[in-house]
Specification:
This protein is mainly alpha-helical. The protein has one domain (about 5-310): Orthogonal Bundle (Catalytic domain of cyclic nucleotide phosphodiesterase 4b2b). Helix content is about 60%, strand content about 0%. The chain has helices at about 5-10, 20-35, 40-55, 70-90, 95-105, 130-145, 150-160, 175-195, 200-215, 220-225, 230-245, 250-260, 265-280, 295-310. α4 packs across α8 and α8 (about 175-195) crosses α13 (about 265-280). The radius of gyration is 19 Å and the shape is globular. The termini are far apart. The relative contact order is 0.12.
Amino acid sequence: MNNAATVRKTFPLAPADAPQQTWEITAEVIRLINPAYDFSVLQRTFDDVMRLFDGEYPGYRAIETLYHDRSHTLEVYVCAVRLMHGVHVSVQHMDDETITMFCIAALMHDIGYAQRIEEAEGTGAQHTGIHIERGIEFIRQYLAENDLPQPWNKTFSCVLRTTSPERIIDTIHFHDQRSRLLGQMLGTADLVAQMADRIYLEKVLLLFLEFKEANFGNYSSMFDLLCKTHGFHEYTMVKLREDFGGIYARLADHFKKVLGVDKNYYMEAIDKNLEYLSKVIASGEDNYQAMLRRHGITEKANRILLAATNG
């Protein structure tokens, strides 16, 4: 990735629901860590996760969650790989096994929303409260079915739990310092990638629908969830700084290495989203949707909410 335009063109998002382009971008970053890295296991896992989203993975339905969709997974994966490179150049050398485990964890961090064929009800959002444990079990089975090292289970069971919305990192039993570091990295990428998404505010409306299906949280409306997003950001920043050790700053090390600029474009994108959020909220509940018009997400959310209300 010696062409700075490549990074600028794709930042801050992973290409919207474009698996092949996402694969190419992240492979270039991984080659910055080790030009001779063997992609065979990671390529197979990446393809399997994409098959799962498409409903082509044996025994599973297509993933239908509205917010935690394939686009979200790809965004988190791109951010995670960039963060991994930043950590590699500034904090801790990443060997090949660590690269593979961390990338699989990023690809499968929300795999617990996937539903087996016999789970015919709902979108998968109803598993919000237990999706991490479901994901850990999926990975355990996946490692066994693909003859991957069983000791990796100990790492994955720790690392995935750091994506919990609660501040539980001190209750997680990390069996070594590597698993703790990878957990901090994954928890960071999960939070930062979604909040830096250019259409994050529109997607919050879809997140409300997931929460409603799961009976999760105490949000009276889409606007109410938007109004509480500033509070979520404040909570998130404490979590990023204290629980995850401020490792989000290593994203700047990645961009400095590949672009020669001392900027953390992810955090800048988050600040821009929050600045616009204030304007959206100030417009009032009767008018806010007119300010969230990108990608037809608002209209989609309203249709789904109306159908659920009339259903």
